[in-house]
Design goal:
422 residues; five-stranded parallel beta sheet; 12 helices
């Protein structure tokens, strides 16, 4: 397999040390000691799971709950965390940002030492002040727009230089099709708008005229894409256009369906998705999606014994617990990083010898883990995870053919030059 992205664009500048170090301190030196006290007994520790089990984001977030429960069983079967059996405290914020904040307060009110949750950036930003004010700890497993570095959040999902930039770089390359026009389509909230600002800045800096870039947004749970797809079809008539797609949630289903209904195929105008993975494809007719792309840091089709064991374990867990989909369940990028995040927390607790939030955060610095995607490493100061950047092409069976990979860890950079306003 030919690897295209051997080097992430040097123009994605590393943030100045003084800014990066704010992730670890942000002026907060007070100890978080006592946060976990009432959630811990001599033999158990309670942790929070904050994912939407209903509403528009359930299509993506239910599987994150499922993999966390599987991981809890896995850890408990191996003796727990410092001999403490993990007990999950599960809440449903129902795809409602305000409810995310309310449920986060409830969990931290129970003094859980850690919470795993959120998908959309609006939900993460809703809970961020709750975790900072209460000195809690959140593991966030989904790719996002960067421009953030909270002292109380561990970001295991991708930063822009680990997903957005490699995707655009690939499509502009000869290997990726040498595309000259880009239709930026997303859901109307902070991640797509900030991501598209980054993408536009990158595209223009690399020779794409501003008039060759179109930007459009739809609300959450939008269902009628007929007019938008008609505009994309006209835009792509020249044969050199691609879609950079940041649609989130169940709106992806009608968008891809309408794309096919109007006769558009990947060879006419490929879609590069940033929020569609194997789990979302389960709800879609993949025969119409063949040849489109997604940019992630993990795919189920990756080789390796660790990944095979992970995939087999998840399918077995879903089947034996009679979860919807059973033996047809799949793994994907956010599922991988949810799993990895819980193991990183467990290992950091044991490295620190404490459930104390400050001590666990310190222990996470530079921590490595053999994830399903291969060895990954926590950044020493910015609370993000170094991992490879990978481009996959959708296959008819709902899996991805790997078409490009860095083959090495990409240092996470939550801030960069492409974040500047146009």
């Amino acid at each position: 397999m030919k690897h295209f992205i051997q080097k992430i664009s040097v123009a994605v500048a590393t943030i100045a040390t003084v800014i990066m170090s704010s992730c670890s301190s942000n002026g907060q030196k007070a100890s978080n000691e006592g946060v976990a006290e009432s959630a811990i007994t001599d033999s158990t520790v309670s942790i929070g799971i904050l994912h939407s089990l209903s509403g528009t984001m359930a299509i993506s977030e239910v599987s994150l709950r499922d993999v966390l429960l599987m991981t809890i069983d896995e850890i408990n079967d191996q003796g727990g965390v410092m001999g403490h059996k993990i007990i999950p405290q599960i809440v449903d914020p129902a795809s409602n940002p305000d409810l995310f904040a309310e449920k986060a307060k409830d969990l931290l009110g129970k003094k859980v030492p850690v919470v795993f949750g959120c998908w959309t950036s609006v939900s993460r930003k809703s809970v961020l002040p709750v975790f900072e004010e209460n000195k809690g700890l959140l593991f966030y497993p989904v790719q996002y727009e960067g421009q953030e570095c909270s002292p109380n959040i561990i970001y295991t999902g991708a930063t822009p230089n680990q997903q957005l930039i490699p995707a655009a770089e690939y499509l502009m390359s000869e290997e990726g099709g040498s595309f000259k026009k880009f239709y930026l389509l997303g859901t109307d909230y902070v991640f797509p708008r900030t991501a598209n600002n980054i993408l536009k800045t990158y595209l223009i800096a690399n020779g794409i005229p501003a008039e060759n870039i179109v930007e459009e947004y739809t609300p959450f749970h939008h269902q009628d894409y007929q007019t938008i797809v008609s505009k994309i079809k006209a835009f792509a008539a020249s044969g050199d256009a691609a879609v950079l797609c940041t649609i989130n949630g169940d709106s992806n289903v009608p968008f891809y369906k309408e794309f096919a209904n109007q006769g558009l195929k990947a060879e006419d105008c490929p879609i590069m998705a940033f929020s569609v993975a194997e789990d979302e494809l389960r709800a879609m007719d993949t025969k119409f999606l063949e040849g489109h792309y997604a940019a992630w840091n993990y795919f189920q089709s990756l080789p390796g014994d660790n990944n095979k064991a992970f995939v087999d374990a998840f399918v077995k867990y879903c089947t034996s617990n009679n979860l919807p989909g059973g033996s047809s369940r799949v793994t994907d990028d956010p599922i991988c990083w949810s799993y990895t995040g819980l193991w990183l927390w467990k290992n950091a607790v044991e490295k620190a010898g404490s459930f104390d939030v400050d001590k666990v955060i310190a222990a996470l610095s530079g921590l490595e883990f053999d994830s399903p995607a291969g060895k990954v490493k926590m950044h020493e100061s910015n609370h993000h995870l170094a991992k490879p950047a990978i481009i996959g092409k959708i296959c008819r069976d709902g899996q991805f053919e790997i078409v490009s990979s860095t083959g090495k860890l990409v240092t996470p950079e939550p801030f960069g030059d492409y974040s500047k306003k146009n």
